[in-house]
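User: I'm preparing a small set of examples for a lab meeting where we compare how different chains pack in three dimensions. I only have the primary sequence for this one, and I'd like the structure in token form so I can line it up with the others. Please keep the answer compact; I'll paste it straight into my notes.
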Amino acid sequence: MPFQKTIKSEINISGIGIHTGKRINLRLLPAERDTGIVFYRKDRGIYIKAKLPFVVDTMFATTLGIDGVKVRTVEHLLAALYVMGITNVLVEIDGSEIPVMDGSAYEFVKAIIKGGIAKQGKTIPLLKITTPFFYEEVHSKIVAKPYRGFKITYKIFYEHPLIMEQSLSIDINEHSFIREIAPARTFGFLKDILYLLKNGFAQGGSLSNAVVLDEKSIISGGLRFKDEFVRHKILDSIGDISLLGYPVQGHFIIERGGHSLHINFLKNLINSNNYEVIEEFNLSHQLSIQLI
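Assistant: Understood. Below is the structure token output for the 292-residue chain.
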């Protein structure tokens, strides 16, 4: 039976926001039981819960907000917290975006391990998929099925010679997540950069915090994995699914996904009768992701 957890000591991180281009100082602070993951905009004095109802934008990243105050690009940090079992923490930032670091979740995981994890002596409920649930948008789709554990099947398709169709199958726990998923970096295409810049995105993007592709090649250096692209999509999906606010038991099959698809699917799922929240269960909180 999983217990609620927080961090043992304060963690300080600073870096550039990939979309705002501004330097952000971030502090992770231990929180009491039943707090959840809460963002605090120190510069605005506003608290924002990391839960589905507070998602206000999904263009190029997942953005949380309340009363016009936003926190952008939360997905990599949320994925790290989820997999490491952190259920209660205050995330204090002095700007509107989580630092991108190297474009992955690896630096966040390392910081959490260094800061330490504290068990809090109270269990956390489980959200369990009980019957299949299907959601589709144009050429994209997600299916959630009952499963004893947390499993994700992810497929991507891009008209680029170095990507094309990618899929992956991997069982993941904290150890394998750190080695196989957390280091996977965000990626983008050179042809899209002008559009992004004109629309206020990618102001802090660089060849050191993203995998950048031109029409035929990678211009930002080598890949960490030959299929780093689909691995990063898995990373994003974990961060988005964590916004349900519970450890999840189910098999999620995702095709041609992205933040908008993830969030729209979750909003429809939560309004369905295809799941139940179990207050006590006898499974350890171990993330088991398999992709085909």
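A couple of notes for your slides: The domain at 3-123 is CATH 3.30.230.20 (Ribosomal Protein S5; domain 2). The radius of gyration is 18 Å.

User: Perfect, thanks.
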